[in-house]
Design goal:
This protein has 173 residues and is an alpha/beta fold. It has one domain: Dihydrofolate Reductase, subunit A. The strands form two sheets. An eight-stranded mixed beta sheet has the order 5-4-3-6-1-7-10-9, with helices on both faces. Strands 2-8 form a two-stranded antiparallel ribbon. Helix 2 links the parallel strand 3 and strand 4. It is globular, with a radius of gyration of 15 Å. The two termini are 15 Å apart. The mean pLDDT is 95.
Length: 173
């Protein structure tokens, strides 16, 4: 099953601050919805906490170390392999062609070696933050699309949508 990372990343690598997004970008939220609709999502517990509910039109797999964590509307797992397997099974049930990995930083780090696609929103800003997108080798990916967007009335910053596809399939584990 194909894995895609979906993330908004500032110029300085920031993806979060105080368990929230450090910006307001309606353009990115619309893209996130379009990219993830009808697909299973893999996210960490803190990401789940920041959203606070299941997202409509998607199934959510929450990866956590906390064995007592049992939110309504989510599939809870405790290791990366279980997250991948549960999401792949959900994708087959949903007739989805990919699983969307939606953060946070530790989940992105776990997924990067197996990720087929990076679907990034490059945020043209350098906000303060306490969560960074993990480093990856840009040479391992080919750019398949780039689409700049000026800041609209509901956007704090201009953004560029960037889609990357891994060269030759996922990296060996």
């Amino acid at each position: 099953m194909r894995l895609s990372i979906v993330a908004a990343v500032a110029e300085n690598g920031v993806i979060g601050r105080d368990n929230a997004l450090p910006w307001r970008l309606r353009t990115d939220l619309r893209r996130f919805r379009a990219l993830t609709w009808g697909k299973p999502l893999i996210m960490g517990r803190r990401n789940w906490d920041s959203i606070g509910r299941p997202l409509p039109g998607r199934e959510t797999v929450v990866l956590t170390r906390d064995p007592s964590f049992r939110p309504d509307g989510a599939h809870v797992v405790h290791d990366w392999d279980a997250a991948r397997e549960r999401a792949a099974a959900l994708a087959r049930t949903m007739a989805a062609d990919e699983v969307a990995v939606v953060g946070g930083a530790e989940i992105y780090r776990l997924a990067l070696p197996e990720t087929d696609r990076l679907r990034l929103t490059l945020v043209h800003a350098r906000p303060e933050g306490d969560v960074l997108f993990p480093a990856y080798d840009p040479a391992a990916f080919d750019e398949t699309a780039r689409e700049p967007h000026p800041a609209g009335p509901d956007d704090e910053h201009a953004v560029t949508f960037l889609d990357l596809r891994r060269r030759g399939g996922p990296a060996p584990a």
